[in-house]
Amino acid sequence: MSRYYGISIIVKDCNPNKYDSIKTAASGLWPFNESWTAFEGELSGYGEDCICYGEDEKDLAKRLAQAVFEANGSLCVIQVDASFLAEPPTETFRFGEREYRQFSRECLRKGVLT
Questions:
Q1: Whether the Cβ atoms of residue 30 and residue 47 lie closer than 8 Å to each other
Q2: pTM for this prediction
Q3: What is the CATH number of domain 3-110?
């Protein structure tokens, strides 16, 4: 049985000259595709797919880390976050009449609405 996950990876303290190698190595194991970004010395990616029977999140994270270490050629810090998308934690916010009235009062007080 496969399970649908969102996987994000953040790689810190890696060689910027190895970014392409790191992206290729990690994307060979998980479909990060074009989601990669580099910002302030961190390389990050996100992708969604199924983790198939016989492997769990920790196994996948270890394989990703190994591929990144190998591609970087030296020590770097790797964070892998796995979210089970079939039952993600969800926080719901509802806004109705009461909130609209409060918003309107605040706008009137600030002179935004007349």
A1: yes
A2: 0.75
A3: 3.30.70
Which residue is associated with the tokens 């591929």?
67
pLDDT in tens, 23-78: 999 999 999 988 899 999 899 999 999 997 788 888 999 989 999 999 998 899 99
- The one-character DSSP state at 18 is G
Q: What tokens were used for 82?
A: 């796995």
Please, are residues 63 and 16 in contact by the beta-carbon 8 Å criterion? no
Burial-class residue 35 by CB neighbours within 10 Å (0-12, 13-18, 19+).
middle
List of residues 6+ apart from 53 with CB closer than 8 A: 1, 2
Give the amino acid at 69.
F
The β-bridge relationship of strands 42-51 and 3-12 is: antiparallel
The alpha helices in 1-114, defined as continuous H runs, are 19-27, 57-72, 97-110
Residues facing 8 on adjacent strands: 46, 81
For residue 52, give the DSSP letter: P
Neighbour tally for 63: CB within 10 Å: 15
